[in-house]
Structures are given as C-alpha cells and as structure tokens.
Amino acid sequence: MEIGESSESPEGKKKSKSKTPRKPKDSVLKQKSPAEFFADNKNIAGFDNPGKCLYTTVRELVENALDSAESISKLPIVEITIEEIVRSKFNSMIGLAEHERVDEELYDDFESAKAREKRLAKEARIQEIQAKNANLGKKVKEPVASKAMRGRGETSYYRVTCKDNGKGMPHDDIPNMFGRVLSGTKYGLKQTRGKFGLGAKMALIWSKMSTGLPIEITSSMKGQNYTSFCRLDIDIHRNIPHIHVHEKQDKKERWHGAEIQIVIEGNWTTYRSKILHYMRQMAVITPYAEFLFRFLSDAPDKNVTVKFARRTDIMPPVPLETKYHPSAVDLLLIKRLIAETSKQNLLQFLQHEFVNISKSHAERLIGEMGPDFSHKMLVKSLTSQQIVRIHQLFRQAKFDDPSGDCLSPAGEYNLRLGIIKELHPDMVATYSGSAQVFEGHPFLVEAGVSVGGKDVKQGVNIFRFANRIPLLFEQGADVVTRTALKRINWNSYKINQVQDKIGVFVSIVSTKIPFKGTGKEYIGDDISEIAAAVKTSIQQCCTQLKSKILKRIQAREQQERKRNLSKYIPNVTGAIYDVLKEMSHLHASKRKRYANEDAEVLNKVSNHIITRETLGEKLAQHVEQVDYEMALEYATQSGVNEEPRENIYIQTLEGESKFVDFQSPVFVFRLFQ
Ligand SMILES: Nc1ncnc2c1ncn2[C@@H]1O[C@H](COP(=O)(O)OP(=O)(O)OP(=O)(O)O)[C@@H](O)[C@H]1O
User: Fold this and answer.
1) In sequence order, what are the beta bridge partners of 235?
2) Residue 427 C-alpha to ligand 1 middle, in angstroms?
3) Cβ–Cβ under 8 Å, residues 287 and 417
4) pTM for this structure?
5) How many other C-beta atoms lie within 10 A of the C-beta of residue 124?
6) 487: DSSP letter
7) pLDDT tens per residue, range 96-150
8) Cβ neighbours of residue 183 under 8 Å, at least 6 residues apart?
C-alpha cells in the first residue's frame, strides 16, 4: 500500500505508527530539467491553449527571422505559411489507421436526438430575434457556438513554415539552438526581439506534446557552399536535442537564411484574427520588411494570402552590443565578468568591461575601494570580500547614464507611416524622446497620437510595441494602457476620451525590456522611469495636437458665424427694403420730406437703383468682407497662415525701379537695391 494513501485510513494510521515513518510521496526530492519545467508551465511562455500556441509559434518564428536578417543589415523578406492538416490527413501522415466511431456516446461532442432538437429550436429562435433586430437597425451579437457546433474538428493540425533571408546558423550549432531550452545567441546586452533562448524550443515542445512530430530546420549561411538540414526533437527530461537527421546537403540556390518547419495542434478559427492582426502590426512597425503570409487548407474559401509590401528601403540602424553599466550589475554578474574577461588587472577590467568608466574614473574608484586594492592587482585574484566591496561601491557611486547609441528605435517617420496606414486619421502627432535609463539599461520611448480616422472605434485605441514586437495580449495591465487611460487628462488637450476616435501608438526599445513573463505580452506598470517616459511622450503628442485642434475649432466657429449671418440676409434685406420703399412713397407724395443723403437714397429706391437684390448683394459682400478681415486678424495673431502658398519670383533690379515689392494680404515687403 502507498504510504500517502495509508495515512488517509485509520487502519493505515495504526500501521504507520508501528513502522519508521516514510516521507509522503509528494515530498520526495526530484529535479526537473528546464525543458520539463517549461513543458509543465507552457502558459508562462505564451503557449496557453491550442489556438494561442499556433499564434505564439508564428510569432516566435517571425521574430527570429527578423532578428536574423537585421543582424546582417539585410532588408528582411519573411514568408510564413500555415497549412491546415485535417485529422484524417494527419493520421495517414503518421501512419495511424482511421477509426470509425463505434460508441458515439463516449465522445464529448455527442448529442442525443432530443438535445439536438432542443438546440435547433433554440438556434432558430435566436436567428429570428436577430433578423428582427437587424431590420430595426440594432446591433446584432455574434451567436455563441454551441457545444455541438464547436466540437468535432475545431482544433486541427497545422504545418507552420517560416522562411527568411537572414544570417542562417552555423551547422554545428543548430541542434542546440532548437533542441536545448535556454540556449541562444541573444543573451548579450543588445536590443533584439529574442532574449530568453526559449521561443523556438517552446514551439518544439508543443509539437512534441500535441503531434509528436520533430522540427525541421534548413539553413545556409553566406559563403557556405552547402545547406544544413536538421530534423530533431527534444529529450525533455535531459534537455538535450534528440537528432534524427543532421547533414550537409548540396546548395541548389544562392540563398542564405533559414527555413523552419513544424507541425503542431492549433486552432485557426479562434486565433485567425489575432494572427492576422499581429502580421499587420508587425508590418506597421517594420515597414522595411516584406512579409508574405499564407493560410492553406482543403477548403479554398478559408484560404488567405496577404502580402505586406515593403514601404521603405531605409532600415533603422542595427542595434549595437553594449557593455554593462556599473549600476546594473549584481555580485553574480561581476563574478561572471571577472571569469570571462581577457583583461589582466583591475584598472583595465573596470575601464573595459563597463560603460561610463574612463581610465581616470577607474583610478579614482580603485583609490576609494581601500588599501587592499591597487591598479595593477590581478582581477582574477580578487577575493569574494573584495568583489563585494566593488559591488557596494558600484551601488553608491555616481555614474553617467548609459547613452542610447546602442538602441535602434523604430523612428518617428516609421511610426507616423504606420499610424496613417493603419488608421487614416484626421490628424496625427508623433514624438521621439531621448534615451533614459532604468536599472542601468538605456531605453527610449517613441509615441504617436492620432484623432479620427476610418474604422476606428470611439475612445482610446492602444497599439503597443516593445523592441519592435507588437504586443497584443494582456493589454489591461500594460504600462502604456494604464498611462493612456488613467494619467492623461485628454480634456485639457481638447480631446474627448470617450467620444473621439483616439489612436495611441507607443514603441519602447531597450537592451532589456522588463516583460512580465517569458511570453513577452506586456510591460508592467511598476518601473517608474518607463511609466514617466511613456506619459511624457503621449503628452508631447497631445500638446502638438491641441494647437491643431484649437485652430480647427476657431475655423469652424468662424464658418458658423458666417453661415449664421448669411442665413439672415434675405429676411434682413426684405425688412430694410420694405421700410425704405414705404419711406420713398412718403417722400415722393411729399407727405414726409427727407433731406440730403436720405433723400438721395429714397430717390434711388423710387428709381429702382436700390432694389431688394442690390441690397442683398451688398449685405452678402459685407459679410464676406468681415469674415475675411477676421480671418486675417486670426492669421496675424496666431502667426500661422494655412492658406495655399504661392511662389514668388524676384525680378531683376534693372532699369528705373530700384526696388521690388512682395505683396501679401497682411504686409508689403519692399526690397531695395
Ligand atoms: N531564423 C533563424 N535564423 C537564424 N538563427 C535563428 C533563427 N531562429 C532561431 N535562431 C537561433 O536560435 C536561437 C534560439 O532561438 P529561440 O527562439 O529559441 O530563442 P531566442 O530568439 O534567442 O529568444 P526568445 O526565447 O526570447 O525568442 C536564437 O538565439 C538564434 O541564434
């Protein structure tokens, strides 16, 4: 009997008393490999359910492809294909004979005849209500799929292929890159999309969990006269690659890059829009890349082909590898840097392994460390206590902030291009902040805010990017969402947070993006430096927008005034003319005499020189003139003239005239010889 079980029963209790107590099964010490850990907790890496797994797999492969092409300054071309494999096709692919269902009631999607009848009646009722609502112009809700509709065949199998024109991979490194969790080439201090050395392996773990099929990698590097091919899966317990094939093949085309292929379970129906949304936003923030996205299935009407063409040839500068900032290191890291350094003495070590420590600064720091330290002492001979002293000094001393030179922001131009493409707004403003620092890591925030546009929902629509990755999940907890919704006083910028269609785009780049979790879904709101920079960037955009909005409001008010005045012209003309006509009769019949100018006007009325029409025209002219003068006054006050500009050509100063005049509605500028 199991000890764990025995303790449940009184009998067991008795027995356990008479024997040496054994540990309950739960507390037996075990170890887990990183691969096992992530297989057990795949949700923390963004692999929550089959649909999300499909989304995250696409994402991981696309981001690796972009990192790879950009690392060699190549304009990226990325082809992603998702091929649906229905269950029967999948079974024949793996050599599993098709089984007809024998006992229907065993299945989750089983529906008795009675239940079916009830469901159909309910669906018919819903359809009827919806048709009525549609006729009344009311909003029609999407029907919720019933269990029977959802059931069979919803999750399916997908072959995901991603091909790029990047750097490719060294032949011998491929197995570890794809078959050993927590191995990668992006751990250094550099702005990259990838960071954890996990994404591709998670896709493989999911494929192992859901289809049992290996991953296939084809790669070729520049200058290699062969193509590497590797088919492998992962030994989860030992966290090592399990290689099926690893060979060099003849190179058939002049291509460098990688092509990754994996077969996983997924759910296209529920994640279709997320995947397409992701691709679209990736195209927005990466306008210098070309993406070809295809979804292929046996049902041609489900197929999708979208090409996101390259819109600019200018790539942001390649991010540079940088060194640690002294304020960003901990004891462990200092020890690692000491173990890895090629520098001999402490002075060289401080000067060369960190940013913002010059030689003279290093000398002063060593002086401050105490009598046990000297410039020439061997860095590898430092004791643990001495390392603690260095660490303490790094914590207390003042260092210049790291510069943002190693970062590669998307750029205001790209952001603006993206916003215009995505939202077609009425107005847009962008802002790019200067580099700032958190925990010794430089970061930079760029923002764009737009108002209006087609197909934009009312309220605040948020678009988030981190190291040029679009973030689509966990929006509520993100620093950008919280800042935009809670810390911006939209009213003070003449923007209505509820009724206006507002677009907020924020892109953050850093050598370390403080994602919450390895799924890279959101940046928390707890880093005050980042939160403050996000707020400032959005506010800067809003300030730009405010002046545009005010101008529009004034222009609209002016037009309104003009329209109001013009509206009354016929009535006013009629009334004045009737009075004048009455007066002219009195004047003509000499019942009442008018003199001078009055008599002149009344004579003109009698002689039809002043008529209802001429009066109307004069009034209209006057309104026009007042409007023009007010516009001029406004333009002079605001100092901005948005009238279409005209080219002015300067005449040669020959002959009689010794000057030339530039005429404008508000000034004349005379240029003398
Ligand atoms: N398409 C590719 N081209 C070149 N190298 C690649 C490609 N895909 C993956 N790699 C290499 O494999 C390594 C592991 O990739 P993986 O997706 O597991 O992690 P990562 O990209 O480093 O980090 P993250 O888990 O944050 O995405 C990468 O660091 C990279 O060196």
Assistant:
1) 240
2) 39
3) yes
4) 0.76
5) 9
6) I
7) 887 888 888 888 878 888 888 888 888 888 888 888 877 776 666 655 555 544 4
8) 176, 177, 197, 201
CATH of 34-93+153-308, one of 3.30.428.10, 3.30.565.10, 3.30.450.20, 2.40.50.100: 3.30.565.10
Cβ-Cβ contacts under 8 Å for 166 (sequence gap 6 or more): 65, 67, 68, 69, 70, 71, 72, 74, 76, 256, 257, 258
Write out the H or E segment, with its range, that includes residue 101: none
- The residue assigned the tokens 């209802």 is 612
Q: What distance in angstroms lies between residue 162's CA and the mean position of ligand 1's atoms?
A: 13
Alpha carbon 620 to chain centroid, angstroms: 53
Residue 199, marked binder: yes
Residue nearest to atom 1 of ligand 1 (CA): 65
Q: How far is CA 454 from CA 12, 419, 457, 501, in A?
A: 72, 12, 9, 9
Q: Supply the DSSP symbol for 301.
A: G
User: Nearest-5° angle of CA 104, CA 110, CA 115?
Assistant: 130
Task: Tell the CATH topology of 409-644.
Answer: Ribosomal Protein S5; domain 2 (3.30.230)
The letter for the amino acid at 566 is S
Best probe residue, ligand 1, of 186, 221, 512 (max atoms within 8 Å of C-beta): 186
Q: Does the pLDDT of residue 71 top 70, yes or no?
A: yes
Distance from C-alpha of 501 to C-alpha of 426, rounded to nearest angstrom: 10
Q: How buried is residue 538: exposed, middle or buried, by Cβ count under 10 Å (0-12/13-18/19+)? A: buried
> What is the CB-side half-sphere exposure of residue 536 using CA atoms within 13 A?
15
- State the ipTM, two decimals: 0.99
The answer to whether the CB of 68 is under 6 A from ligand 1 is: yes
Distance 373 CA to ligand 1 centre (A): 42
Task: Reply yes or no on whether the pLDDT at 400 is more than 80.
Answer: yes
Residue extent(s) of CATH 3.30.230.10 domains in the chain: 409-644
Q: How many residues does the chain have?
A: 673
Rounded CA separation 52/521 (Å): 12
**With respect to CATH, is domain 326-396 assigned 3.30.160.20?**
no
Which three-class secondary structure state does DSSP give residue 615?
Answer: helix
- Determine whether 478 is exposed, middle or buried from the number of CB atoms within 10 Å of its CB (0-12, 13-18, 19+): buried
3 state SS of 116: helix
- Rounded to 5°, angle at Cα 161 from 157 and 167: 155
**Model pLDDT for residues 266-315, shown as the tens digit of each residue:** 999 999 999 999 999 999 899 899 999 999 999 889 999 999 998 888 88
CB 233 within 8 A of CB 242: yes
- Between the CA of 512 and the centroid of ligand 1 the distance, in Å, is 17
CATH 3.30.565.10 occupies which residues in the chain?
Answer: 34-93+153-308
